[in-house]
Amino acid sequence: MAAPHPKPKSSSPSPNDRSYKRIGLYFRKQDNTRINFCDVHFTWVTPKLLGVKDDAGNKGFMYEGGFPYIAAYYSGPTASIDQNLKSLSSQADMDTYVKTGAAAARLTLANGGVAYLSDPGMRAFIAQEIGLEPPDDGNGMNWQKVDRDRKMTVECWLRGPLLFGGQSYGSLVVFLTGTLKAGSDYQECVLRGSKYIDGHIDPMYRQLERLDHDMRAAESSMEKARGYHMEDAAVNSQKVFLDKSDAYTKLKKTYDAKMAEIRNTLYSIPLPDKVVRAEWQFESYLRNLSLSQATDQSG
Asked: Are residues 91 and 223 in the same domain?
């Protein structure tokens, strides 16, 4: 069973290469007042696009260094990533939850932990930032301008074990509904409980992204080699592309099956007394931060 991943590391030598977003989670009461019960923090290396062309001369893009991974954490309303890293659950906490179904007293939602933004949320976050959306076939061509007002539902997993409302959970899943445009008003979200605590889904997704990046790089190398009539190099690149594509297909099948199994076991969470619904709102969006600046942001 995998432990939560540590503090995000910068994959770029630039000291100010980070983007940061924070979402506030709220309970709206019958008197229309709101209680901010949790914040979710997201940080990633600000994406850069490389221009590419296909054999027909059509222009497109590729992510420099691959698709940026979004590190996510949840905390209390006034805490930062750095503060909540001090109270992450341990392997012993996970083992205890598996055996007893109980989370340790210190593992409250307000004390924070590791979160995970699933697709299409990750891609939508990045698309909102760069203003462009890649094509479904992933070939680098035909990117489209982002519809910033498009509404969608995104899953955000608050991984535990954790205590919330006096109950123990393996994870909480927040379904964020609405537009992902920064500055939007309060929008509805739905909370679901899960017994899932294992962190292997997260690394599996990152491996899928790496394989996808390697596939595109091999495909680009193959096309360039053919353009220069370098047949041996084209054959070698084609072999790499086919190997990576086969590995991606197999891992994606495992990933999708595991996620479907986990989603099928989600259950409803009762709202606190006098609460009408749960809501969410973007609280902050910043760019050109250092890693330490990003992890020090708080509500």
From this structure: no
